Automatic annotation (TrEMBL):
The lineage of its organism: Eukaryota, Viridiplantae, Streptophyta, Embryophyta, Tracheophyta. Keywords: Membrane, Phosphate transport, Transmembrane, Transmembrane helix, Transport. This is Phosphate transporter PHO1. It comes from Linum tenue. Residues 2-352 form the SPX domain. One of its GO terms (cellular component) is endomembrane system. It holds the Pfam family SPX.
Length: 789
C-alpha cells in the first residue's frame, strides 16, 4: 500500500506546492507527540505496583476499575478541542484558532501541533479564495468578450443578407470608415496594438441610421469603448459635433486586438477593423464574396482566441478543484494520525470546521465549470458534448509497453549492426569517417540527450509541458524520444553496412556513395509527411518552431523558440557538416570521389562564416525582439553575449587560415571574454545559481535535487566543457582521420554539455513558476474593455 505522503507528492500541482498543506511538517509534529508519550521505565512501574500492594486488595477493585474505564471512555468521546473563527485584523478573511479543552500530559507538543494545523488551514483557505476570485473575474471578462463576439457575428450575418438582397445598391449604410493605427509599446504587451476606426455618419436614411445606432448601442453595452462618446448624442439630435472637413459628423470606435497566436506578427493580427466587420466590401469586389471571406476569417480568429481562453479557464478551475480535494484528504489523514497517537478523538470536531471552511463549502468553482461546459457546447462545439469534452478534458496518451519493447529491440539491432560494420570496415581497410555519418551521429546524440532531459524532468516533477506550452495529449515522452533515437541510428548503421557490402561487391563509387544522400531524402520526406503517422503533431510543431527561429525577429518569441535556438548554437558543427554533405552531393564531387574538393572553393570557405554565425544571430534577434516587447535591459545584455560568441567564432575560423601571433592573440582575447560572459549567464541568469545570499551556499534558495553536491559538480563540469575551444588554438597536429575524429569528439562534448544545461535551465524556470504560483498560462482576449485603457 502506497503511503499517503508519496501519493500526495505525486498528485499535487507542482506550481502550487507551497500552497498545499505541509503534510510532512505536520507528521513531524505528530512524531514529537508520540515521543513525548513514551511509557514509563520498568523500575517506575514496579515501584507503583509495590506501593498499591502495601494496602492489600479489596473486593471492590473490579467495580472501581469498571467505573474508571467508563470515565476514560466518556472523556475520549467528548470534545477535547474547540475551533474558533475570527476575522483577521485589517482584512475580511476569517482565520481559525484551536483551543485545548482537554488537558494533555504533553500539552506543549499538542498545542504546537494545532497551532501549525490552524496555520495550514488558514493558508489553504486564503489561497483558495484568491484563486477563486481570479478565475471568477476571468470568467466575467470572457463572458463579456463572448457577448461582443456574438454581436459582431450577428451584424456580419445581417450585413451579408442585406448585400445579397440589394444587389443593385453597392453602397452601405453607415458611411465611410477611416482607419488610423495607434500602437503604444508597453513593457509586457508588445503584441497588443490599439486600432482606431472612425465611423463617419453622413446624410443617411433614418432606417439605416437607426440600425447603426442599434449596432453601436449593442457594442457599448458589452464594454467596447468609443473615443468620442458625446458624438453619438449629437448625431441623434442632429448636431454637428465632431465634424470633419466635409462637415460630416464623426465618431471613433476603439477596439484593441492582440496577437491571436504566437506565430503571427502584430500586423497580421491587429487588422480586425470595424470597417471589415460591419461594412460592405470595398468597391470593385464582385458580389462582395471576397470581403465576406476576409470578415469571416477575422471573426474566426477572434473566436479561436476566446475559445482558447475558455479552455484555459476550465483547466484552471479543474486544478482548483483538485487542490481542494487533496487538501481535504490531507487534513483527514493527519488528524487520524493524531487520534491514534494521542488516544483521543479530536478529528470529528476539527473536520467539522474544515468542511465548513471556504475551500470546501464554496461551490463557485464547480458552478463556473458547469457554466463553461454549457457555453463551450453551445458556441464552440455545435451542441456536441463529446466535442466539448475533447477540448476541455483531453485524454492523456497511455504509455504503451510496445514503445519500450521497440526501444530495446532497436538498441540491440544498433549494437549488432555497428559491430558488423566495424569488423567489415577493418577487414576491407576502408575505415574512414565521412561527413554524412557525423551528421547522423550528432543528431542522434542530441535526441538521446533530450530523452534523458524528459526522463529527469518527469522524475523531478518539472512541468515542461506547461513551460513550453505543449499539448500533454500529443507531446513526446522520454520513451518516444529514445525510440526515435534508436530507430534513427539503426537505420543509419544499416545503411553503412549496405554501403560496405555494395562496395565490396564491385559497384561504382558514385552509385555506392549515393546511399547517404538517399537516406537523408527519406528522413526529410518523413519529417514533412502530411499523414497522421509517426508523431505528426510533434513533427509539424518542430517545423513551425524552426520557421519562427529562421524568421527572427518577425515572430513573437516564446520560451520554446529560445530553447530550440539555444540547441542550434550547440549544433554548429552539425550545420557545417550539413554544408559539406550538400556540397558533396549537389556540386557533383562524388563523381571524382575527392572529399577535399569542397574545401578548396572560396564560396564554400565564406559560407563557413555564415553558417557559424547564423545560430548566434537568430538568438541575438530573439533578444532584440524581447527587448522591444518588454523594455528589459537584460535582453540587450543577453544579446551582447551572442554577439561576443559570433566574434569569437569568426576569430577562430580566421586563425585556422592565418596562423600568426596577431590572430592568436585575437582568438585568445575574444574566446576568453565570450567564455566568461557565457559562464556568468549560464550560472546566474539561466540556472539562477551563484547567489551569495542564498540559504544554500552559492546556489539558490529553492532546489529540486536534494543532493547539493550535484549542483557544485554541474558547475565544474559546465566550466570544463565550455573551455573546449582551447584545443583549436593549441596547435595540435593530427592525420586527417584523427583530426576529424577529434572534431567529432569535441562536437559531441558540446551536445552533452547542452543536454546537461537543459535540465538546470528548465529547473530554474519551474522554480520561478512555483514562486509565482503560476499553473495556468495567461491568455489574451481580442477585445479590450472600456476601463482597460
Amino acid at each position: 500500500m502506497v503511503k499517503f505522503s508519496k501519493e500526495l507528492e505525486a498528485q499535487l500541482i507542482p506550481e502550487w506546492k507551497e500552497a498545499f498543506v505541509n503534510y510532512w511538517q505536520l507528521k513531524k509534529q505528530v512524531k514529537k507527540i508520540k515521543l513525548a508519550r513514551k511509557p514509563k521505565p520498568p523500575q517506575q512501574v514496579a515501584n507503583s505496583i509495590n506501593t498499591s500492594s502495601e494496602f492489600g486488595f479489596s473486593i471492590f477493585d473490579p467495580i472501581r476499575s469498571y467505573f474508571s474505564s467508563a470515565r476514560s471512555s466518556s472523556s475520549t468521546t467528548a470534545e477535547i478541542i474547540k475551533v474558533r473563527r475570527k476575522m483577521m485584523a485589517g482584512s475580511d478573511h476569517e482565520v481559525y484558532q484551536t483551543d485545548l479543552v482537554h488537558l494533555f500530559s504533553e500539552e506543549d507538543e499538542v498545542k504546537a501541533f494545532f497551532e501549525k494545523l490552524d496555520g495550514e488551514l488558514n493558508k489553504v483557505n486564503q489561497f483558495y479564495m484568491a484563486k477563486e476570485k481570479e478565475f471568477m473575474q476571468r470568467g466575467d471578462i470572457l463572458n463579456k468578450q463572448l457577448d461582443i463576439l456574438m454581436d459582431l457575428k450577428r451584424i456580419l450575418s445581417e450585413n451579408r443578407r442585406r448585400v445579397k438582397s440589394s444587389s443593385n445598391n453597392s453602397s452601405v449604410s453607415g458611411g465611410v470608415f477611416s482607419r488610423s493605427w495607434s500602437s503604444s509599446p508597453r513593457s509586457s504587451d508588445f503584441s497588443e496594438s490599439g486600432l482606431e476606426s472612425e465611423l463617419t455618419g453622413g446624410e443617411t436614411p433614418k432606417s439605416e441610421q437607426s440600425e447603426t445606432e442599434e449596432v453601436i448601442a449593442a457594442l457599448e453595452k458589452n464594454g467596447v469603448s468609443f473615443v468620442n462618446s458625446n458624438t453619438r448624442t449629437k448625431m441623434k439630435k442632429g448636431g454637428s459635433g465632431g465634424n470633419n472637413n466635409n462637415n460630416k459628423p464623426k465618431m471613433a470606435l476603439r477596439v484593441d486586438i492582440p496577437a491571436t497566436t504566437p506565430t503571427r506578427t502584430i500586423t497580421a493580427v491587429t487588422s480586425m477593423l470595424w470597417e471589415d466587420l460591419i461594412n460592405n466590401p470595398k468597391k470593385g469586389e464582385s458580389g462582395g464574396g471576397g470581403g465576406d471571406h476576409i470578415n469571416r476569417k477575422k471573426i474566426q480568429c477572434a473566436e479561436k482566441m476566446i475559445r482558447s481562453a475558455f479552455v484555459e479557464l476550465y483547466r484552471g478551475l479543474g486544478l482548483l478543484k483538485t487542490y481542494s480535494s487533496l487538501n481535504m484528504v490531507a487534513f483527514t489523514k493527519i488528524l487520524k494520525k493524531f487520534d491514534k497517537v494521542a488516544n483521543q478523538q479530536a478529528s470529528p470536531s476539527y473536520l467539522r470546521e474544515v468542511k465548513k471552511s471556504h475551500f470546501i463549502s464554496s461551490d463557485k468553482a464547480v458552478r463556473l465549470m458547469d457554466e463553461v461546459e454549457c457555453i463551450f457546447t453551445k458556441h464552440f462545439a455545435n451542441n456536441d458534448r463529446k466535442k466539448t469534452m475533447k477540448f476541455l478534458r483531453p485524454q492523456q496518451q497511455k504509455e504503451s509497453h510496445m514503445v519500450t519493447f521497440f526501444v530495446g529491440l532497436f538498441t540491440g539491432c544498433f549494437v549488432s549492426l555497428f559491430s558488423v560494420y566495424a569488423i567489415l570496415a577493418h577487414l576491407s581497410g576502408i575505415f574512414s569517417p565521412t561527413t554524412g555519418r557525423s551528421v547522423f551521429a550528432l543528431l542522434s546524440l542530441h535526441l538521446f540527450m533530450y530523452g534523458c532531459n524528459l526522463f529527469m524532468w518527469k522524475a523531478t516533477r518539472i512541468n515542461h509541458n506547461f513551460i513550453f506550452e505543449f499539448q500533454p495529449s500529443n507531446s513526446l515522452k522520454y520513451r518516444d524520444s529514445f525510440l526515435i533515437c534508436t530507430t534513427f541510428m539503426t537505420s543509419v548503421v544499416g545503411a553503412m553496412v549496405i554501403h560496405l557490402l555494395l562496395r565490396a561487391a564491385g559497384f561504382s563509387p558514385s552509385q555506392v556513395d549515393a546511399i547517404p544522400g538517399v537516406l537523408i531524402l527519406i528522413f526529410i520526406a518523413l519529417l514533412i509527411c502530411p499523414f497522421d503517422i509517426l508523431y505528426r503533431p510533434t513533427r509539424y510543431y518542430f517545423l513551425r518552431i524552426m520557421r519562427n527561429i529562421a524568421c527572427s525577429p518577425l515572430y513573437k518569441v516564446l520560451l520554446v523558440d529560445i530553447f530550440m535556438a539555444d540547441q542550434l548554437t550547440s549544433q554548429i558543427p552539425l550545420l557545417r557538416h550539413m554544408e559539406s554533405t550538400a556540397c558533396y552531393f549537389i556540386a557533383g564531387t562524388f563523381k571524382t570521389h575527392r572529399y577535399e574538393t569542397c574545401n578548396s572553393g572560396k564560396l564554400y570557405r565564406d559560407l563557413v562564416y555564415l553558417i557559424s554565425f547564423l545560430p548566434y544571430y537568430w538568438r541575438a534577434m530573439q533578444c532584440l525582439r524581447r527587448y522591444i516587447e518588454e523594455s528589459d535591459v537584460n535582453q540587450l545584455a543577453n544579446m551582447g553575449k551572442y554577439v561576443s560568441a559570433m566574434l569569437a567564432a569568426g576569430a577562430r575560423l580566421t586563425y585556422a587560415k592565418k596562423e600568426n601571433h596577431l590572430w592568436f592573440a585575437i582568438v585568445l582575447v575574444t574566446s576568453a571574454f565570450a567564455t566568461i560572459y557565457q559562464l556568468y549567464w549560464d550560472f546566474v541568469k539561466d540556472w539562477g545559481l551563484l547567489n551569495p545570499k542564498s540559504k544554500n551556499k552559492w546556489l539558490r534558495d529553492d532546489l529540486i535535487l536534494k543532493n547539493k553536491s550535484i549542483y557544485y559538480m554541474s558547475i565544474g563540469l559546465n566550466v570544463v566543457l565550455r573551455v573546449a575551444w582551447v584545443e583549436t588554438v593549441m596547435g595540435f597536429r593530427f592525420k586527417m582521420v584523427e583530426s576529424r575524429m577529434l572534431d567529432f569528439f569535441l562536437a559531441s562534448l558540446e551536445v552533452i554539455r547542452r543536454g546537461h544545461w537543459n535540465f538546470y535551465r528548465l529547473e530554474n524556470e519551474h522554480v520561478s513558476n512555483v514562486g509565482k504560483c503560476k499553473a495556468v498560462k495567461p491568455v489574451t482576449v481580442p477585445f479590450r474593455d472600456a476601463d482597460s485603457d
